[in-house]
Amino acid sequence: MSKKKVVLHFFGPILFATLTLGCAGTPQMTKGFLPVEEVARFSEMEKSTISFSPQSFDNTALGNKAQLVHHIEHTGFHLYNAAAFVNPQKGVLVGGAGLRIGTTADGGLNWEELRLSRYANMLHSVALGKEGAFAVGETPFILKSDAELKNWKALPLKTLEGLGEGELTLYKIRFNGDIGFAAGVHSTYGAPQRPLLLKTVDGGVHWDVMATKGLEKDSTAISDISLPHPHTAFIVTQQGLAHKSVDGGSTWETVFTTASPGPPLNSIAFKDGKTGFLGGMGGQLHFTDDGGANWQRPPELKGTGHWNFSDLEYLPNGMLALTTAADDYDERPVFAFATDGNGGGGLHPLLSKQRPSIFFEGDSYDIFPVDTEHLMVVDRNNVYLVNTKNIVPKTNRKENK
Fold this sequence. Notes:
Layout: E1 2-7, E2 18-21, E3 27-30, E4 34-35, E5 46-51, E6 55-59, E7 64-71, E8 79-87, E9 90-96, E10 100-104, E11 110-115, E12 123-129, E13 132-137, E14 141-144, E15 153-156, E16 167-176, E17 179-187, E18 194-200, E19 208-209, E20 222-229, E21 232-237, E22 242-245, E23 253-256, E24 265-270, E25 276-280, E26 285-288, E27 309-314, E28 320-324, E29 336-339, E30 348-349, E31 366-369, E32 374-379, E33 382-387
Antiparallel strand pairs: 1-5, 2-3, 4-15, 5-11, 6-7, 7-33, 8-9, 9-10, 10-11, 12-13, 13-14, 14-15, 16-17, 17-18, 18-19, 20-21, 21-22, 22-23, 24-25, 25-26, 27-28, 28-29, 29-30, 31-32, 32-33
């Protein structure tokens, strides 16, 4: 692997976005995205070109080939949190330290890496919109690329109403068509933390702060959001709660709770307005088929009571892909699985190997379905392309009559 680096220094003026009042009197952004080169906070950004030789290996879990498309040696604090791929050749990785973005257009042979910060802050999530990729994390900006996943711009969020003071962290960004949400936490000195939810209705051009009515008792960050329909949304929080909205995020009702505070919930995924899963620390994995009114633990999950279910995503065939995280510094032979998407239970490994030179950290926080036959699995400093066509949907669950 070879790497070329160019350090860029910018000392231009700090630019601010223009605010206008919408018809409802809510401040909205107009032409708010600035080229990252013009943002004073990113004045010491670095650009690098990284060459890599993807490695193909036998995926013994599915009886086909998988591919290591990126790997970092001697990572230190450098790790990946999330990926979003247009196809197996073209995609984005985000993580840290230093608000890192990596893009490839040739299946991992070459990566263009952008480091926006010299500190340890990270990007936590990336999503594909209609006109590019959007990334969020430990920064008061939403970052956006162009359609070719290049030429990144930044939207300053502290110009939005109520966000001028304190620290902003966004853990997840999701889209369903033109509707999108970015979710996290807002912390201000001398006041309790409060969940933070931003919404766009025009594909990410403008963003508004949502009032989060119904979340008053939840004083922790929103970890994940699922958008099965434009007006229906589900969120989970680090307090171990799940909430549902049927009016586009204006109001919320609690649909899942454990002990208070319970183990943090990391991820939630719905394939429609009724059928979905949530997962988190302490082996929490629960299923509903009635829109969150009732939850149950799927069968055949023996031995998973201590697992950290870190990300859940539905596959095109209706199965649920899930990944797990464990920072124990030992190799984990299997860390990514599939299960029946209708709650039938059972865990089927998605990725395993015999080749000693391929090392599974098993500290994974993102799994991304690329298309009907491919899945990206992010594992701290490794990214794997998995061929999923050998996964056969299976159910052990009897439908309610």
